[in-house]
Design goal:
single chain; 146 residues; alpha+beta; Aminopeptidase; 7-stranded mixed β-sheet; 4 helices; 7 strands; globular; binds coenzyme A
Length: 146
Amino acid sequence: MIKIEKINLNDIKEINKILSELGLIPYPDFDLFHKSDNFLCLKVVVDKKIVGGIILSIVLDEAEIYDIFVREKFQREGIGSKLLNYVEGLLLKMGIRKLFLEVRASNHKAINFYKKNGFLKIGIRHNYYKSPLEDGLIFSKDLRDA
Ligand SMILES: CC(C)(COP(=O)(O)OP(=O)(O)OC[C@H]1O[C@@H](n2cnc3c(N)ncnc32)[C@H](O)[C@@H]1OP(=O)(O)O)[C@@H](O)C(=O)NCCC(=O)NCCS
């Protein structure tokens, strides 16, 4: 059974390790922003081990996914979708209506994941990502339609 809980200071090393394993950028200043009301930082726990998580920023009635991630071994089991679904419910209760994110144009796994979960592509930021240089695709979802 999976549990979804707030990330606490003791988790930060592990979360950054998972992000690195997945080729995502770790957060050196995690401890600063995870305490802020403008961020929502949640982990997915299976058998007392962190297997994934999500980091979002919240501004007024909009939120942006900075990262959503599931350890390779646990991917394609519906964990990412359950986490997203849980977060969307939470955001709606907080009065947040729109969810945004940006993803590398080559990250087909994530693009499929977002499309499957009801996100629509609304724009492209050319050459937005560095190392390697790549376009960023912007997706959004109106939570009231979900
Ligand atoms: C994106 C990610 C969070 C999805 O998590 P997950 O738990 O594997 O996702 P789910 O099992 O809920 O998959 C839901 C849907 O996403 C799509 N999807 C997930 N993995 C996929 C893959 N390897 N190839 C193609 N589509 C995939 C499918 O449409 C899937 O539905 P299906 O299994 O019924 O076909 C995970 O792949 C991940 O951590 N990727 C690395 C980090 C990353 O790139 N994060 C996003 C950018 S911030």
